[in-house]
Structure formats: structure tokens, C-alpha cells
Amino acid sequence: MGVRIHGIGGHMQRLEGLIALVTGAGNGIGRGIARRFAGEGAIVFVADVDGAAAEAVAQEL
After folding, report:
1. How many CA atoms lie within 13 A of 54 on its CB side?
2. What is the tens place of the pLDDT at every residue in 6-59?
3. Is 1 helix (H, G, I), strand (E, B) or coil?
4. Alpha-carbon distance 58 to 25, whole Å?
5. Structural domain boundaries of the chain?
6. By C-alpha distance, which of 55, 51, 21, 54 is closest to 38?
7. For residues 12 and 44, what is the distance between their CA atoms, to the nearest angstrom?
8. DSSP letters along 4-61, please?
9. 26 FRET partner, CA 20 to 30 A, in 14, 20, 43, 48?
10. Are 16 and 42 a contacting pair, CB within 8 Å?
11. What's the whole-model pTM score?
12. Which residues lie below 8 Å from residue 31, measured CB to CB, with a gap of 6+?
């Protein structure tokens, strides 16, 4: 029986080659989803009614 690592590091790059559009990505759950998808290799487009918040998240990624 092996050790299974959960979280972002446990499944790195499983979304590689996929594209995601995350709405409401400027903060909260949407921001978390955008970060997770990017961390797993997806190309992420962020959208939010608060353009400055969306830009800040895009710069983080």
C-alpha cells in the first residue's frame, strides 16, 4: 500500500492541453478554481465583472 498525496501536488498536469474559462475568477471560489486549474496545467482564461480583480488573478497565474 503506497502513500497517496492529495491536493494540487497530487495531480499535477492532469489538465495539460485543456482550456478553461473561469467566470467570477476575480475572487473567492472562482479565483481558487482558476488557480487550481492553472496549477494542474490548463490554459486558463479569467473573467469577472471587476476587471482589475480579474487582471490581478491573471497575473498570479
Report:
1. 13
2. 555 555 788 999 999 999 999 999 999 999 999 999 999 999 999 999 999 999
3. coil
4. 9
5. 15-60
6. 21
7. 15
8. ---SGGGGTTTTTT-EEEEETTTSHHHHHHHHHHHHTT-EEEEE-SSHHHHHHHHHH-
9. 14
10. yes
11. 0.78
12. 25, 57
